[in-house]
Amino acid sequence: MEGELEQQLAELMAPPVRSLYLVHSLVGVDDPKKKAAHAITAGSLRTRFEHARTAAGVDFQFRDLRAKGGSDADDLETAQRLLGHAAATTTDRYIRRRVGCVVHPINRKIG
Predict the structure, then answer these.
(1) Stated pTM of the model
(2) 3-state SS of the chain?
(3) Which of the four pLDDT bands, split at 50, 70 and 90, describes residue 84?
(4) Do 66 and 83 touch, CB atoms closer than 8 A?
(5) Calpha distance 3→15 (Å, rounded)
(6) pLDDT, tens digit, 9 for 90 and up, residues 1-48
(7) Residue 64 φ/ψ, nearest 5 degrees
(8) Rounded distance, CA 24 to CA 38, Å?
(9) Hey, what long-range contacts does 3-11 have (CB within 8 A, 24 or more apart)?
């Protein structure tokens, strides 16, 4: 991680920790300081992802992120450990062959 994401995560993990969940939903009274953080549902995560994807102007599915993580690994063994596959042959079929090069995120705010 780097840039704004790294900073945001550092702030979220700094005391006092406001939630046990990195991605959460605040529910409760109107005062934000008195709201309780709860884990979000799978449906809510999907909806948030779809809104972010539309705002970013990209076209891929949530499930593509897992394959992307494996494909970006430095070697097959690392990808296998990352994806949790017992057999390297499964990982070899699962990862996508790289096209182009790996790039680093642009350090800018979205939206």
Answers:
(1) 0.50
(2) CCHHHHHHHHHHHCCCCCCCCCCEEEECCCCHHHCEEEECCHHHHHHHHHHHHHHHCCCCCCCHHHHHHHHCCCCHHHHHHHHCCCCHHHHHHHCCCCCCCCCCCCCCCCC
(3) very high
(4) yes
(5) 21
(6) 778 888 888 887 888 777 777 777 777 656 666 667 788 888 888 898
(7) -65, -20
(8) 5
(9) 3/105, 3/107, 4/107, 4/108, 4/109, 5/105
